[in-house]
Specification:
Blueprint lengths: L1 E4 L5 E5 L2 E15 L9 E7 L5 E12 L4 E10 L7 E2 L7 E3 L5 E11 L5 E8 L6 E16 L1
Length: about 150
């Protein structure tokens, strides 16, 4: 069963007792450095406030291209203070390298324990510890979060 479209055109989808949302982003810039919580945030989702403890099942994909060679990975950040601070969920992993002028992609999955009556915002960011730290001029992303009751 689908709910009404919300902010950013995101439509809530109910799966039994679960709450799921999806977001995709058109081409935009994406930072790749070792501070993902501070990077450009794409594919925003939220706010979402569970009424009981839940587990968020998270799938994220990014694709990127630039004039420079870039090695990076997808990451997801979340905020529980209306976007004042952001916390990266994932560590290093699933590197993708885009040689100059070509596209590459990184897909990852994880989960996050959600606290009842806490409001969450989510977004996709780039992450890299491999120099040069740079920004991909062309990027796209997809973020899917399904919250299931514990």
């Amino acid at each position: 069963m689908q709910g009404p479209a919300g902010a950013n055109g995101v439509t809530a989808v109910l799966f039994n007792e679960a709450f799921g949302v999806e977001s995709s982003n058109p081409i935009g810039s994406l930072n790749f450095d070792s501070t993902p919580a501070n990077n450009n945030r794409l594919c925003p989702l939220g706010p979402y406030t569970p009424t009981q403890s839940q587990t968020a099942l998270i799938d994220v994909t990014i694709a990127f291209e630039d004039v420079l060679q870039i090695t990076g990975s997808a990451n997801v950040v979340y905020s529980t203070d209306n976007g004042t601070t952001w916390t990266a969920i994932l560590g290093v992993g699933n590197w993708a390298t885009a040689p100059s002028g070509t596209w590459a992609s990184s897909t990852r999955a994880t989960q996050l324990a959600l606290t009842a009556n806490t409001t969450y915002l989510f977004a996709v960011v780039g992450f890299s510890t491999i120099p040069p730290e740079t920004t991909a001029d062309n990027s796209t992303c997809s973020l899917r979060i399904t919250a299931v009751n514990n």
